[in-house]
Amino acid sequence: MTQILDGKELSVQIKTEIANHVRQLTAKGHRAPHLAAVIVGNDGASQTYVANKEKSSREVGFTSSVYRYPESTTEEQLLEAIAFLNNDTDIDGFIVQLPLPSQINEQHIINAISPDKDVDGFTPINVGRMVLSEECYVPATPMGVCTLLQRYGIETTGKHCVVVGRSNIVGTPVANLLSRKGFDCTVTLCHSRTRDLASITRQADILIAAIGKPEFFTADMIKPDAVVVDVGIHRIPDATKKSGYRIIGDVKHSEVDPLCSWVTPVPGGVGPLTIVSLLQNTLKAYHRTHPNCD
């Protein structure tokens, strides 16, 4: 029988844990953790994500700030904003929402973020620390995947985990994390140019679907009783929905779900834990600068 890795339910549980911790901090007279976001332009998906971040921050008692800049913002102007946030001692962590307009080099912006406030885990220093298994801020989506597997007690030691997708935001870091001590998977990292991909995914005890293609993974690509984590999220036009669209993942769930031992739904799987991971990283950043507040 297929069981659900319910990220929505788990996110509520973790947010409750964080909120209780923040209440204890403020009851002792300490200020609440402060998470900020920078958004440039009017990308719809980015606006939604930042709004969800604000809502979740308020739910756990964080202070939340959003710095909004027009589409015409220059790279120099944005770098000035990053410098300001790096030096603001009232802000524990911040994110710069991607994608950025074409006139701005995203890597230049990421490189300018202080590693101590990089709660997205994107700066080269945090990425390097993660690869070396040192203390760092882990990127939010890979952290969410790992949290799901841990909290649901999924056996990972010695399992063959196939990660499909090699992005710096999801695929590459999650492959690294699952190969490390504590998870101890044997990891195969595949991508769009992998030959005979289905023959490899059929070997997966755990499949991380992060290729970025709607309903790409079908029943013939899945090993019976596999654990399938669908990281994909796509808006598909649907006139029957009030929103005008429906959300699907990288997995064709109508075919794949009956074959799985565990599977994440879309929506309601990895997505809710991405924001929770951001909150956890911010709380970690707070305690790094307030070591004696517990």
What keywords describe this structure?
294 residues, alpha/beta, 2 domains, three-stranded parallel beta sheet, Rossmann fold
At the fourth CATH level, what is the homologous superfamily of the largest domain?
Answer: NAD(P)-binding Rossmann-like Domain
Look at the structure and give the mean pLDDT: 95
User: What is the count of helical runs?
Assistant: 10
Radius of gyration: 19 Å
The CATH architecture term of the largest domain is 3-Layer(aba) Sandwich
Fraction of helical residues: 25-40%
Give an overview in words:
With 294 residues, the protein is of the alpha/beta class. It has 2 domains: 30-114, Rossmann fold; 140-271, 3-Layer(aba) Sandwich (Rossmann fold), CATH 3.40.50.720. 39% of the residues lie in helices and 16% in strands. The chain has 10 helices and 11 strands. It has a 6-stranded parallel sheet with strand order 1-11-8-7-5-6. Helix 1 (7-27) packs parallel to helix 10 (271-289), helix 2 crosses helix 10 and helix 6 (140-151) packs across helix 7. The longest helix is centred in the N-terminal third of the chain and has 21 residues, at 7-27. The protein is globular. The mean pLDDT is 95.
Sum this structure up briefly.
The protein is of the alpha/beta class.
List strands and helices in order, with pairings.
Layout: E1 3-4, H1 7-27, E2 34-40, H2 44-59, E3 63-69, H3 75-87, E4 93-96, H4 106-112, H5 124-131, H6 140-151, E5 160-164, H7 171-179, E6 186-190, H8 197-201, E7 206-209, E8 227-230, E9 234-237, E10 245-248, H9 253-256, E11 262-263, H10 271-289
Parallel strand pairs: 1-11, 2-3, 2-4, 5-6, 5-7, 7-8, 8-11
Antiparallel strand pairs: 9-10
Helix pairs in contact: 1-10, 2-10, 6-7, 6-10
